[in-house]
Structure formats: structure tokens, C-alpha cells
Amino acid sequence: xxxxxxxxxxxxxLVGGALLLSLAITAWDHWGRWHTPRLEVRNFVxxxxxxxxxxxxxxxxxGLWLRWRIERxxxxxxxxxxxxxxxxxxxxxxxxxxxxxxxxxxxxGIPAEAQPLxxxxxxxxxxxxxxxxxxxxxxxNRLNAMDVDAVIVAGDWTHEPTQDxxxxxxxxxxxxxxxxxxxxxHDVQAPGPKLTAPLREALTQHGVxxxxxxxxxxxGWELVGLDDQWGGRPQPQxxxxxxxxxxxxxxxxxxxxxxxxxxxxxxxxxxxxxxxGHTHGGQIWIPGFSPWFLRKTNxxxxxxxxxxxxxxxxxLVTPGxxxxxxxxxxxxxxxxxxxxxxx
Length: 343
What we know:
Blueprint: H1 3-30, H2 40-70, H3 78-95, E1 101-107, E2 117-122, E3 127-128, H4 133-144, E4 150-154, E5 158-159, H5 165-168, E6 179-182, H6 196-205, E7 208-210, E8 215-218, E9 221-225, H7 234-241, E10 253-256, E11 273-276, H8 289-297, E12 306-310, E13 313-317, E14 335-341
Parallel strand pairs: 1-14, 2-4, 3-5, 4-6, 6-7, 9-10, 10-11, 11-13
Antiparallel strand pairs: 2-14, 8-9, 12-13
GO molecular function, one term: metal ion binding
GO cellular component, one term: membrane
GO biological process, one term: lipid A biosynthetic process
């Protein structure tokens, strides 16, 4: 046996050991979380997919490189292909989920009675399985560095988080801007664990104002929040806030929802701008497949990422900052949307 073959054997033993260690860490990390009923095993598997690449990814690449060096013949070229797939996986789990961008949108022609406004829109934080404390700290730092009048959070604050929600969301208390938001489907058991009441309490204690079913003043505008469509009842709120489908204040209303589909329930001309999340922009973008998947699972409307014209008015869908399902993003960077409303 050559020295290269001995090294190859040691590396693959290392890969196996790393995978076993990742299972042990997953079991430890799985304990003490809110879990959606009957999805505990799924959460364990997803957590293992979070930890396994972090421990076994680099040894696996070394092992594939050694196999490429050792083997001869046509089968030798399998290993660079496998290595390329591993690199894509490592990029999508190690790099892109942490590579937050700020996307700028400027909308002109605001109503005369409204003041120019600068907003930071985020959604789908999903603090829990994949979005960890350090990322929440980093997000708060990024928001604090922005020159905006307010931060808007369009739902899905959680995804199977640890039990102490008050401690977990403590970084939000450092935000120097007012924060308004709504809850998303994962915050109201659609699906998700039964954490809505303690989540509301934790967010409120850290200065977040949740506004479902309310219209609050903001620099000459009305900021309107609506329930999540899957786990709440937005239709009665819409009927109350837009009686008869009309409102004298519609031209200066800014609507915050979690799901873009909720905007399709609004009356014509309901708002100057609506803001939503939920879709993650596809999270892992595969041309052809991702639009089909989004229409089957997330949204009946083709409003997934960016600015759209709708019957109710303009709609901005943010791809969010967290992840769900797989602990990865590919081709859809986590995003803070900076919105400037100007004359």
C-alpha cells in the first residue's frame, strides 16, 4: 500500500468520524427547542444537515482529491464532479446564508400629506434551527448602521427556536430605530410550535410593536398590519380597515403582510405600497423548477422577489434573511430591503 493510499484511508476514516460527531452534536442541539408537533424527527434530520457539512465538508473534499490522485482510467473523473457538487453544497451552506445584501428601491410620487420616508424591510428571520444568535446580532448591527426612519419585519421570526425566546431575541433591544412588524405562519402554528403568546411577549419586551389588524401613524402615513393568511384571519381585518372596499387614506397607506397572496385580497388601490416576505425568493434558485415549486407550496400569485404592480397597488416582496427546510441559500442572497419613499 502506497503512502497516498494510507493517507486516503485515514481521511475517509476522518470523514466517517466527523459524520458520527455531527450526529452527537445534533442530538445535543435538538434538545431544549420548541418543536412543531410530530415533526421532531424531521427537525433532527434538518439539524444534522446543518452540522454535518461544517464538520465533514473539508475532509470530504480532501478525500475526493486523493481518490482522483490514486485512481486511473475513465472512473477517475467521477471525483472532480463529486467535488464540484460538494463545493456547491458548502458554498450554499457556509457562505451565501451569511452574505447579507442591502437592496435599494426608490418610489416617487408620494401623497402631498405624507412625508418622505426611509424604511428597512426584513422578513423570515427564522431564528432557531439555522439562523443563530451571532446572525441575529449581525443583522441588528447592519440595521443600526442604516439611515432609516423605521424597521419593518414582515413575519416568520422563528423556526423551531430554543425555549427562552426572551433571551434569544434580546439583540432586538439594541435597535436604534422604531420596529413594527407582523407574525408569519411559522409564528402562529401554520406550521409551527405553539409559541405565539410567549413570542409576542418577548418581542414586545424588546421594543417591537406588532400591528396585525391595526393602522398606526408614521410621518403622515398609515402603517397597516394584517394577519398571516394561513394561521390568521386577515379578511375580517381588511373588511374593517377598508369598509366597503374603500378608504380615504388608501393613497397614504403602507401595508405589512407576511404572505404576498394576502395582497390579492385587498381592494383596488388599497395602498401606496404593500410589503411581504414568506417566499424566501425561492431560497435555492433552480431555473424552471423554483417558480413551479413556489406556485405549488408558497404562493398562488407569481410574486416571489422584488417589486410588482398589483390591483391593490405596488408590492415589494423581500427574499428574507433566514432559511428553512434546508440550511442553505443558492442564488438568492439574504436581503435587507431599503425603501425610499420620495416626492
